[in-house]
Amino acid sequence: MCKTFGVSRSGYYDFVRRLDRPETDAGLAQLIREQQKHCRQTYGYRRMWMWLGKQGIHHNPKTVLRVMKKYDLLAEIRRPRKWVNMGQQVHRYENLLNRDFHADRPNSKWVTDISYIHTGQGVLYLSMIRDLYDNSIVAYKTAESQTVSLVLDTIRLAVKQEKKKVAGRLQLHSDQGFQYTSQAYFNLTKEYGITPSMSRRGNCYDNALAENFFSILKSECIYRQKIKTFHQANQLIDDFIYFYNHERIRLKLEWRHSNLDFFFLPRGSFVLSAQVGAVQIQLTQ
């Protein structure tokens, strides 16, 4: 029989011995599969590794990556975003943020932007404000047209959510869209004591953390289904932002409050350092 199928005798008997051997990765794969279903197939291996650790299940991150690849449980890949700059400028502001996306306290640095959600009824416009302290969404508004009022209503809601006027040290960073250069935007930020900051012309990376959220929203929610109505889009946005703010593991927040310091080094390695010392684990790419 081995000659007929062109296999060696040792290979045949090795295959027979493995027939009754239990699949050692099946249990871990099932846990990952259930969590991916809960988080909408959006967790990469690092977030999945952190989630497993919260459940008291400890594995090497490389093991989690291997199992996710083996059972086709990897997160879905994000789509690229097209950049658009439009509108007439009235007010321009300095780039005070200057790509310093770290904040030591809440409500000290906000970023804001508008994105487009395509539906069967047309384009729905989403305006949001994100706090750089923990990357949470402070406030968001949607509208069927892209107006200055959409931006102003988002700012009013953000301030109202805090139940008090925000401190004058708060920076609100935006791109150079016509809503953010308008006289009405200038007046409202001055009324609330907010210090505007603005990206340089044509430089999307200056507002990368605002763009980053839209990328997450679209890749993990919007692009995964065909949206027919504005109502459906609004419901998806509401559900996802609640999930993002209250359930989705955010690496920045987890590392901030963890006893471990986690940071990446060149060629795919990373270091976990604790009070007892440090250990370096090499990850193959």
Walk me through this protein's architecture.
It is a single chain. The protein has helices at 2-5, 9-19, 26-38, 45-54, 61-70, 148-161, 183-192, 208-220, 230-246, 251-257, and strands spanning 109-119, 122-131, 137-143, 171-174, 195-198, 261-264, 270-274, 277-281. It folds into 3 domains: 2-75, no CATH class; 109-246, Nucleotidyltransferase, domain 5 (2-Layer Sandwich); 251-285, no CATH class. A hairpin with a 2-residue loop joins strand 7 (270-274) and strand 8 (277-281). With 285 residues, it is an alpha/beta fold.
Q: What is the H level of CATH, i.e. the homologous superfamily of the largest domain? A: Ribonuclease H-like superfamily/Ribonuclease H
CATH T-level fold name of the largest domain: Nucleotidyltransferase, domain 5
Instruction: Give the count of structural domains.
Output: 3
User: Which CATH class of the largest domain?
Assistant: Alpha Beta
User: What low-confidence regions span 5 or more consecutive residues with pLDDT below 50?
Assistant: 259-285
Radius of gyration: 24 Å
Fraction of helical residues: 25-40%
Output the number of helix runs.
Answer: 10
- The strand line-up of the biggest sheet is 3-2-1-4-5
Structural class: alpha/beta
User: What's the order of the H and E elements?
Assistant: HHHHHEEEHEHEHHHEEE
Number of DSSP-assigned strands:
8
Descriptive terms for the model:
38% helix; Nucleotidyltransferase, domain 5; disordered C terminus; alpha/beta; 285 residues; 3-stranded antiparallel sheet; single chain
